[in-house]
Amino acid sequence: YIANRFPQHGHYIPQRFADNRIISSKYTIWNFIPKNLFEQFRRIANFYFLIIFLVQLMIDTPTSPVTSGLPLFFVITVTAIKQGYEDWLRHKADNEVNGAPVLVVRSGSLVQTRSKNIRVGDIVRVAKDETFPADLVLLSSDRAEGTCHITTASLDGETNLKTHFAVPETAVSQSVSRLETLQAVVECQQPEADLYRFFCSLIRPLGPENLLLRGARLKNTKEIFGVAVYTGMESKMALNYKCKSQKRSAVEKSMNTFLIIYLGILLFEAILSTILKYTWQAEAKWDEPFYNEKSEVERNSSKILKFISDFLAFLVLYNFIIPISLYVTVEMQKFLGSFFIGWDLDLYHEESDQRAQVNTSDLNEELGQVEYVFTDKTGTLTENEMQFRECSINGIKYQEINGKLVPEGMTEDTPDSSSREEELFLKAVSLCHTVQISYDQPDGLGDPFSHANGFTSQMEYYASSPDEKALLEATKRMGVTFTGISGENMEVKTFGKSEKYKLLHVLEFDPNRRRMSVILQNPSGERVLFTKGAESAVLPYAKSGEIEKTRVHVDEFALKGLRTLVVAYRLFSTEEYKEVARRLHEARTALQQREERLADTFSFIEKDLEVLGATGVEDKLQEKVQETIEALRLAGIKVWVLTGDKHETAVSVSLSCGHFHRTMNILELVQQKTDHECAEQLRRLSRVNFGRSADHVIQHGLVVDGASLSLALREHEKLFMEVCKNCSAVLCCRMAPLQKAKVVRLLKTSPEKPITLAIGDGANDVSMIQEAHVGIGIMGKEGRQAVRNSDYAIARFRFLAKLLLVHGHFYYIRIATLVQYFFYKNVCFITPQFLYQFFCLFSQQTLYDSVYLTLYNICFTSLPILVYSLFEQLVHPHVLHNKPALYRDISRNAILSFKTFLYWTTLGFCHAFIFFFGSYILMGEDTSLMGNGQMFGNWTFGTLVFTVMVITVTLKLALETHFWTWMNHFVTWGSIAFYFIFSLFYGGIIWPFLHTQDMYFVFVQLLSSGSAWFAIVLIVVSCLFPDVVKKVFYRHLQPTSTQKSQKLDRCTEIIHNTNLPAFYCAGALKLM
């Protein structure tokens, strides 16, 4: 009910509609704690530590519950704070939208309220350049004809001005007082996500052209009034919010695999310890020694329960082999590390003032693992800035020279005599479009014809595509100028003479027809249809004109890389037009199957055409596209171009941008009509020689069109993939948006499971961006939909090289080392605890004090690896950028392979054995090493092992560090210093809240022994010396290409800093 005027009498049941609040947040203040805890404990490591903590609370375990509870609490708290902060930002954005001021008609006047207070049925007033706060049916505008112009760039990426129409019966209600007296009922369908489908009834049937969508913006119209029909989360914009599928990186998957392996090691150690304990206790003297007699309850307790209790106790004792703080450190590294992309000035585009942006930090390391890049062409490889170059009129090719159409082969000085065909062609181009004109005036457009004499400095074309804008600007230069639409009239100035055409119908463009048409009444009263579209969508429906010559010219334009459109027309007799008008009216007012009926009607109208000619528009390449594609190829990354352009245009652009080489053998899978044809062609292609010729590798490129691709994917996926993988470059043309996503999915799910990246700038690229492992949006001229749905956004295609080759390389190296190091230091930490059980009859006596157990991962060893994972650079960024082949060193998850994982784990066990047995051999046999004759106890022994371990694992990371900053020095040496200071402080005071004072004065006594210092130095050197030898040996005898580049980079730096002659580094350079 408009203005919420419900019937006073009768059986009306009030309906419950959604309020107008938009909610993009996950949590509320009430459900944050339970919901966040539920999500966090779905992680296997967190849930495992919760179980361990509960076990410690329920049974008598060797370590305090604090040792598991405090790290778990720390991890849960840090993660909750991070997620809470991100959700607070979402709440903040929601509140800005929901609290925006709007004007609503209530009680006969305009009342200002907040957007969230709009109800279904409210009449809302929207002014120029404001966004619509809900889905509105247009009631009236400040124009007499009841139209308004809007732009929907934020919804579907289309930047053109679209015309929407008011309900004719309400269009005259342009004041609040008249709207207040309006009594009517709107009946509409249930809310649905499709932006282009809308059926409702308000006095008469209404369609999408009467609906103003939330998020769209009012342009060139002073004000409009509309009635709210869908609000809040039921608006079409909200229903289009897509929950992006959670993308997980290869590193995270490897991490989970390693976690399961370590869980297996933990269970093995706990079971072995339990079995050995009972084996040892089979002897009576060890089962119940004189100093530890059992109570009656213990003697009579169930042996099975005792076995389970002991197993759980050992599980608690060894549980720190699972690194709980790994997850929180990885999250912090990803979150903090993502800022470097936004701060990188090399990824800043000065002209548009746009920085690179990170929409999800979870995939940073995936940038270093990409094997396939799928790219759109228009707006991604090209500028999406169109320039008119050539056209074909009546079978003759023309070029534009200084604003004149000149036949091919003629010069500019040729006498200027426009033929009827030329004039008709230019008029068709000037009239067949959906372009709107903006005049630079504060009060909107007004009457465009009033600007007829002075429009040049004030008017600007707004087009749905850059092609249309380029064509209109070209016809304007050639003397035929479109000057605007007023009501039902379109005006063109033809060589200075003004002509008005009555606009009868617009047959809108759609992707299936690939053409659009207008039906006009010319000044002489004739009804004429002008059509333009792809040559495959227009020429088959033509019956006259220079059809064959135009087809040849279109192919020639395409070979030059031009975007082509064919223009045609048709004159209607009075009877034909009546039939056309009747069919259109029936189709547009149909309440059922409206789209199908409209498609049939359009097909009936757009036939028997006479070809006028064709246009060729150039879309110039972006800067450094060729160099970027070549760099990606050298890095071992295959580039696929997926475009909607025609075959010849796409191939030409592929050649000009370096995607295809001139020497490349181009294979084609195009124009396949049947499954059998497609299969035969694929078999022929698979038999092509993909090997080497006598002197070089034969490179192949494959061209596929959309229709052939559909056939290939239906029955012959395996054969198609085999051909594709043997090609250096693949070009898919005439692609629909969903086909792009299908191609990406095909590669993703192939047996090799390669990492894929999709990059595009338009709404039609969103599906492939969301499908790929990594999606990148280009901040282009086709709206922001691709950017909003991407994982990363950059301003230009050339920035992709640095994003992958430099940032991707760094992120992968850093996080891969972080994961390996975490497992290594936890093996070093807990293995001595396991070995100690052999010397204490598996009595579950802990080797370390519980405070050390708690703080090892939180304080003593956490900061050095975090800082390393933020700043480490194996090679200088310029070297990585200039030597793309270095990217191959880290491909296929090389640093997190099972081999390297085994190396780090074995190294951890070796170091742990050296810590334990080194300390035991040096100090275990002679326990009275202190000057006053006092003996070392088990806490002193455990503290010695712990001290050696903290120093060794910290210095091990220092050995792995190549790029030292002041922060690396501070946290590396600071962590060791903090451990010593903390231990002195902790052991130097009697803490009243501790049950036992086991560590009192232990550390001071340990450091007062010269033997202890000797043992610390000897054990640390014994652990790290083999590492140093191995590094030197491999670096000199089997250097990787990355290590060679490091050496070259170091040499260059020495020469630069010391001004030495280059021959001083000749020996090093010979190794390159």
From TrEMBL:
Q: Where is the P-type ATPase C-terminal domain?
A: 787-1040
Q: List, for all copies, the residue spans of the domain called P-type ATPase A.
A: 101-164
Give the UniProt keywords, A-Z.
Answer: ATP-binding, Endoplasmic reticulum, Endosome, Golgi apparatus, Lipid transport, Magnesium, Membrane, Metal-binding, Nucleotide-binding, Translocase, Transmembrane, Transmembrane helix, Transport
Cofactor(s), by name: Mg(2+)
What the entry lists under Pfam families is as follows: Cation_ATPase, E1-E2_ATPase, PhoLip_ATPase_C, PhoLip_ATPase_N
What molecular function does GO assign, one term? phosphatidylserine floppase activity
Asked if the Swiss-Prot or TrEMBL record annotates the protein with the keyword Nucleotide-binding, the reply is: yes
Record InterPro entries = ATPase_P-typ_cyto_dom_N, ATPase_P-typ_P_site, ATPase_P-typ_TM_dom_sf, ATPase_P-typ_transduc_dom_A_sf, ATPase_P-type_domA, HAD-like_sf, HAD_sf, P-type_ATPase_IV
**What is the recorded function of this protein according to its Swiss-Prot or TrEMBL entry?**
Catalytic component of a P4-ATPase flippase complex which catalyzes the hydrolysis of ATP coupled to the transport of aminophospholipids, phosphatidylserines (PS) and phosphatidylethanolamines (PE), from the outer to the inner leaflet of intracellular membranes. May contribute to the maintenance of membrane lipid asymmetry in endosome compartment.
Enumerate the PANTHER family for this protein. PHOSPHOLIPID-TRANSPORTING ATPASE IF (PTHR24092:SF57), PROBABLE PHOSPHOLIPID-TRANSPORTING ATPASE (PTHR24092)
What is its quaternary makeup?
Answer: Component of a P4-ATPase flippase complex which consists of a catalytic alpha subunit ATP11B and an accessory beta subunit TMEM30A.
Q: What is this protein called?
A: Phospholipid-transporting ATPase
**Gene that specifies this protein:** ATP11B
